[in-house]
Design goal:
binds S-adenosyl-L-homocysteine; seven-stranded mixed β-sheet; single chain; about 40% helix; Rossmann fold
Length: about 240
């Protein structure tokens, strides 16, 4: 159980980090991030959900998830799919910060997904649902494509891009949260980009507030006009 001092320290880092990202942290969002930390680390003592230590929760789970705002204007996004969400990252922080979002959390590991579902209920988040299964097995009906598909620490681009592609709406985007050096992964995936309905827009490098960690947000877009091509790739 965390102490008041812990909470004050975490809250201060979260506020500063949000400010650095140009995001307004409402009291509701701050309370939800706090409760999420408590729920995650209580559960993590029993079931293995995350390797990120509690002391790094603010930077490595919350602010890292929110970093997507460096690449995407989240106010214009309505629907998000988090593919390989694990215990709910980045999907839950995105929903906390931008409550208007409708979010689908997908993961093949049931114990992690159950935690995410239970946490959403306890956080009072509505408009968020969980789907258990493997992305490549088309677990979400393709009539339900998202404006934005996100994935953090799930797979190398060569596998991830084909997993994400079917779930992106025409005109929508996919963002893969990657580390400082993506050169090898991008080279390995070069062939995949020529065969899938997503176009590579680029990699936005961003520094994680409160740390020296560099992230690359690899952004892909499904052209609005490629609905025909998208249909062909469905089989
Ligand atoms: N995105 C979370 C979890 C990363 S661990 C975070 O950043 O904290 C990778 C997660 O991806 C695991 O929970 C694993 O179960 C899930 N995963 C891996 N391959 C998958 C697939 N093909 N379909 C769905 N989930 C997958």
């Amino acid at each position: 159980m965390s102490t008041t001092d812990d909470r004050t320290h975490h809250d201060a880092r979260l506020s500063e980090g949000c400010e650095a990202l140009g995001l307004e942290l409402t009291p509701e969002a701050r309370d939800r991030f706090h409760l999420l930390r408590e729920l995650l680390y209580q559960a993590n003592a029993v079931v293995n959900l995350t390797r990120v230590p509690e002391t790094d929760f603010v930077e490595l789970h919350c602010l890292d998830s929110l970093l997507v705002c460096r690449a995407i204007d989240m106010r214009r996004v309505r629907t998000v799919m988090d593919l390989g969400c694990g215990a709910g990252f980045p999907g839950i922080p995105l929903k906390i910060m931008w409550p208007h979002l409708r979010v689908v959390l997908v993961d093949s590991t049931l114990k992690k997904l159950r935690f995410a579902e239970d946490a959403c209920t306890k956080l009072g988040l509505s408009g968020i649902r969980t789907v258990h299964g493997r992305a490549e097995e088309r677990i979400v009906e393709l009539t339900y494509r998202s404006d934005l598909v996100v994935a953090r620490a799930v797979a190398p681009m060569v596998r991830l891009v084909p997993w994400m592609a079917p779930y992106v709406k025409p005109g929508g985007r996919a963002v893969a949260y990657k580390g400082a050096d993506v050169t090898d992964e991008m080279r390995e995936a070069a062939d995949v980009f020529t065969r899938c309905p997503l176009e590579l827009e680029g990699a936005v490098a961003a520094t994680l507030p409160g740390s020296a960690i560099i992230r690359n947000l690899v952004t892909l877009r499904r052209p609005a006009a490629s609905a025909g091509a998208a249909t062909r790739t469905k089989r």
